[in-house]
Design a protein that fits this description.
The chain is mainly α. It has one domain. The chain is globular. The two termini are 24 Å apart.
Length: 176
């Protein structure tokens, strides 16, 4: 991994953490929807990140959010789970449908539809796990499912907008 890629990922981490902690943690739509855009950082980690580093980075990412939001490990657990599952999904969804090498998963690398599906799966598993831990009641299963689904859709839309605006801007800067 080259130093430019490392600095780009550190910048992405800081930007997404600041967006999450300062803005998105204060967004609750209808009592059911809370977007967690910082998950995009885990989804976009370089493909050559090993399984153990992926899990450690995911754990630390969730821990940073838990510490800043005064949670009890809900983000940490959900992030660690998707960090564990991400390489499997990436291989099954993105690699299987793509012949070209991808260094960083994004809307601009490979098939847009496959990336959108990959991102939606990661976001849904994160939100479902998070809300299962947060509410922790099978009596409220449909509330958990609705919250997870609506939060996933909103986060997915924000992630696509983020990638379109931020990555398109940085892509244009690289060509100039």
């Amino acid at each position: 991994m080259n130093s430019q890629l490392i600095f780009r990922n550190i910048g992405r981490f800081l930007l997404l953490m600041l967006l999450q902690v300062l803005i998105l943690n204060n967004v609750y739509l209808g009592g059911y929807i809370n977007p967690y855009l910082y998950i995009l950082f885990i989804a976009m980690l370089p493909t050559d990140t090993g399984k153990i580093p992926m899990i450690i980075i995911s754990f630390c990412t969730g821990l940073c959010i838990d510490v800043s939001t005064n949670m009890l490990g809900f983000h940490t657990f959900a992030c660690t789970l998707i960090g564990f599952m991400r390489p499997i999904w990436f291989d099954k969804i993105i690699i299987r449908d793509n012949n070209e090498a991808i260094s960083t998963p994004s809307v601009y690398s490979g098939s847009y539809q496959m990336f959108a599906l990959y991102l939606f799966l990661i976001l849904f598993v994160f939100h479902l796990t998070f809300y299962l831990l947060l509410i922790f009641s099978f009596r409220d299963f449909f509330t958990i499912l609705i919250s997870a689904l609506l939060s996933t859709v909103l986060t997915w839309i924000l992630a696509i907008i983020y990638q379109t605006l931020i990555m398109h801007h940085s892509k244009n800067n690289e060509t100039h």
